[in-house]
Specification:
- This protein is of the alpha/beta class.
- The protein has 13 helices and 9 strands.
- The strands form 3 sheets. A 5-stranded parallel sheet has the order 2-1-3-5-9, sandwiched between helices.
- The chain starts with a strand and ends with a helix.
């Protein structure tokens, strides 16, 4: 009987959806159990950091690391698992691009902590207490991870061999990736795996007529025509700048693509490319300034999943303030 692969799965700064995505492969989880021994998966079983620390370096064949790096604990575990793993996979949009947590890069640590611990309507903190990384009590020293000023992708912290996009990756894609790992058929390092090479629009069956738009609307404000291109209806859709491979569940539910599968080959900044695609469909006679006002939360619209991995990475005034 062939020796089983040795796996680790970890959840850093994310919502937990990627761990659920692994379970969504259904009965194929039994095939995974036949081929692999999971030595670390704290979201599913009782593992401790000391269990990983005790492993020899490079003794794990593959680590699926989901979640961005938001604090010192995330970074510590990322470096630990990198040392123990032969192959590190940025699994899901948070690890790959920063995703929703990465929108915090529009502000800074101080403002975030002030908002959460002092300014929210439900907070009762008259003393103005703020989290401390260390606090002495009679029983010993209590410790919290350091909350970083900016969210980082996994590849901005440790070397990564492969990237699996998606928020979360769809079950069929997850199983395709796991099958490739089990069979030893992964592409050369650096690849985005389990997905296509084209953009979502190339596979979308919706009709494009070349219509120019004079106004933008949000999905809840209209009943979109399920046969027509979202963009030509004035609904911002990230299909032109998003990698295919998800099976288009949002499109089939009559909702526009939000871009969670990241940019296709050749696109270095998904947000900037989407902005360009949106500008290309505007009616030349439209009032551009008025149209811009109709786009609620531009940063969250164009960089919803990719701000930390973009050319911007974080609000530039933060960088200026550090000089």
């Amino acid at each position: 009987m062939a020796e089983k692969l040795r796996f680790a799965i970890y959840w850093a700064a994310s919502c937990g959806g990627c761990d659920i995505a692994v379970l969504e492969i259904g009965h194929n989880i039994l095939k995974l159990a036949e081929a692999a021994e999971i030595l670390f998966w704290p979201a599913a079983m009782d593992f401790k950091y000391k269990d990983v620390e005790a492993l020899p370096d490079k003794s794990l064949d593959v680590c699926l690391f989901n979640g961005s790096v938001r604090n010192s604990e995330n970074e510590h575990v990322a470096r630990l698992l990198r040392a123990k793993s032969k192959v590190m996979v940025a699994f899901g949009s948070c690890a790959y691009e920063g995703c929703i947590p990465g929108l915090a890069n529009l502000t800074n640590r101080g403002d975030i902590l002030t908002c959460v611990y002092q300014e929210t309507p439900s907070t009762d903190n008259h003393a103005g207490a703020m989290p401390q990384t260390h606090w002495a009590v009679p029983e010993g020293d209590l410790e919290l991870p350091e909350f970083y000023d900016a969210v980082k992708t996994l590849a901005q912290v440790v070397p990564v061999e492969y990237f699996v996009p998606g928020c979360p990756p769809v079950a069929a894609q997850v199983w395709n990736v796991l099958q490739a790992i089990i069979a030893g058929q992964l592409p050369p390092p650096g690849a985005v795996v389990g997905v296509g090479t084209r953009n979502l629009c190339d596979e979308c069956e919706r009709v494009r007529e070349g219509t120019k738009v004079k106004r933008f609307v949000r999905p809840h404000e209209v009943i979109a025509d399920p046969q027509r291109c979202f963009l030509e209806q004035g609904i911002i859709c990230a299909g032109p700048v998003t990698r295919a491979g998800c099976g288009r569940p949002c499109i089939h539910a009559n909702m526009p693509c939000r871009g969670c599968y990241g940019p296709p080959e050749g696109v270095s900044d998904q947000g900037a490319k989407l902005l360009s695609a949106v500008m290309a469909i505007i009616d030349p006679e439209a009032d551009v300034e008025q149209l811009v006002q109709q786009i609620v939360d531009p940063a969250g619209t164009f960089y919803r999943f990719s701000l930390p991995d973009s050319l911007l990475q974080q609000a530039k005034w933060l960088e200026v303030g550090k000089r």
